[in-house]
Amino acid sequence: MKCMIPNGKDIRMSTKDKLIKAIVFGSSKNVKFRDLRQFMTGVCGMRERVRGDHFIYTKAGISDRIVLQPNGDMAKPYQVEQVAEFFLHYGGTLWRK
Predict the structure, then answer these.
(1) Pairs from 46-54 (Cβ < 8 Å, separation ≥ 24)
(2) pLDDT digit string (tens) for the chain, length 97 residues
(3) Cβ neighbours for 23, distance < 8 A, ≥ 6 positions apart
(4) What DSSP element (H or E) covers 41?
């Protein structure tokens, strides 16, 4: 995927940028569950724990946790919206160790 910048040059978006765009700014109805998992662990740096079909994400220093369940191979739309709100709320905190 390419993105135009003000000087007219195009730049390639990284996988991380594509995930952020798709999950935070895209449609919540067309997100694969594996992409949402990759977003939580790779982009947000969350620790993943699995209990049955529940995927539980936590991070030191953040009191909230996210619990996700797949809907087949897709993510549930309301959970994608929950992750987007979480990312927007904690954005800067997620990159600190």
Answers:
(1) 46/94
(2) 444 445 555 557 777 788 888 888 888 888 999 999 999 998 888 999 999 999 999 998 889 999 999 999 999 999 999 999 998 888 766 655 4
(3) 31, 35, 36, 39, 80, 83, 84, 87
(4) none
pTM: 0.78
What 3-state DSSP class applies to 10?
A: strand
What b/e string do you get for 30-64 counting C-beta neighbours within 10 Å, with b at 16 or more? ebebebbbbbbeebbebeeeeeeeebebebeebee
Q: What span, in angstroms and rounded, lies between the C-alpha atoms of 79 and 89?
A: 15
Q: Determine contact, residues 28/80, Cβ cutoff 8 Å.
A: yes
CA distance linking residue 79 with residue 86, whole number of Å: 10
The Cα–Cα gap between 58 and 86 comes to 12
Residue 6 corresponds to which tokens in the numbers above? 């003000």
